[in-house]
Amino acid sequence: MAITLEEAPWLGWLLVKALMRFAFMVVNNLVAIPSYICYVIILQPLRVLDSKRFWYIEGIMYKWLLGMVASWGWYAGYTVMEWGEDIKAVSKDEAVMLVNHQATGDVCTLMMCLQDKGLVVAQMMWLMDHIFKYTNFGIVSLVHGDFFIRQGRSYRDQQLLLLKKHLENNYRSRDRKWIVLFPEGGFLRKRRETSQAFAKKNNLPFLTNVTLPRSGATKIILNALVAQQKNGSPAGGDAKELDSKSKGLQWIIDTTIAYPKAEPIDIQTWILGYRKPTVTHVHYRIFPIKDVPLETDDLTTWLYQRFVEKEDLLSHFYETGAFPPSKGHKEAVSREMTLSSLWIFLIQSFAFLSGYMWYNIIQYFYHCLF
User: Fold this and answer.
1) Which of 43, 229, 254, 290 lies deepest, with the highest CB count within 10 Å?
2) Which tens digit of pLDDT belongs to each residue from 116-175?
3) Where, by residue number, does the polypeptide cross the bilayer (predicted)?
4) Which CATH topology does 77-230+246-338 take?
């Protein structure tokens, strides 16, 4: 398409702005991530003496790093509108988020909308594709204890065993509370055709806005983290008693992400900011763990039901621009999620000051030694 004379200045400014944003994010990463690693190294004695306090401090720094990523989108005009139940009510309990997956921007969206949910981000464990291990943020996720899962049928059984071991070794010992899981096992655009063929072959729901979820990782997580009562049934919370002190996993948070016109945001857009300001919509439903079956077949059926409901939610959203009201309510209520500019300024200032401090410390020791 030919560029008109009127469009040229706008496109030129868009290019300059994208380059400036990219340069800032490179510098941001160069000061923030090495500073995080240096703090973690210097705090290793505390890890031996008081492991819980060490992981608390590490979690706070982890939250700040994710807050920086969230701010990149925030200042490009990529905001979040929340719908459904208020998940702040269960932010202190253990929970698993089951999220539909459309693009890399889903992760950035969650990084943003969970920032104001107390210590959720600090105590969160992500399950993500192994390719993220080799990104700039991979070292941070490795230290924090996120799990990188390799996709593909040939790896599936091995990866589930590794996940089980990872949870046993890292979840409780690092005081983790929430887990983020994308049960579809890949992006919608990549899995839709395969999922629909599988559904047709096995007489399962035919979905277009989501794909049929895989139950393997969900089953491993539930079996590893759900506290069992003496009678063998799961000990979880009740929707009317959010202050439950039951140990173990208590909630499943069914999370549905929707983009206007079904056009998801990818990580490149989030970084460069070349797309017009966009509001991403996130819908939550909370299920007490006692209502979730643990047996494989029943759990698979339960997950299918949740994704059929996601299909309906997204269809309604794409038709009307809003999610439908919850059961028992006449109108759907949305909540605009906001980030504090002062808080972003403070964590960015801390990152750059830390980077300057560690640079001088390392330079001093280098000159002393060499």
Assistant:
1) 254
2) 999 999 999 999 888 778 877 889 999 999 999 887 777 888 889 999 999 999 999 999
3) 20-42, 54-75, 131-149, 337-359
4) Glycerol-3-phosphate (1)-acyltransferase (3.40.1130)
- 311 close to 205: Cβ distance less than 8 angstroms: yes
69 neighbors 108 (Cβ within 8 angstroms):
yes
Q: Distance (Å, rounded) from C-alpha 301 to C-alpha 105? A: 28
8 Å CB contact between 189 and 106? no
Torsion of CA 347, 348, 354, 356, to 10 degrees: -160
Contact 307, 106 (CB under 8 A): no
pLDDT tens, 131-146?
A: 778 877 889 999 999 9
Please count the other Cβ atoms lying within 10 Å of the Cβ belonging to residue 17: 14
Residues 6+ apart with CB under 8 A from 51: 173
Beta strand spans in 171-323 (E): 178-181, 251-258, 278-288
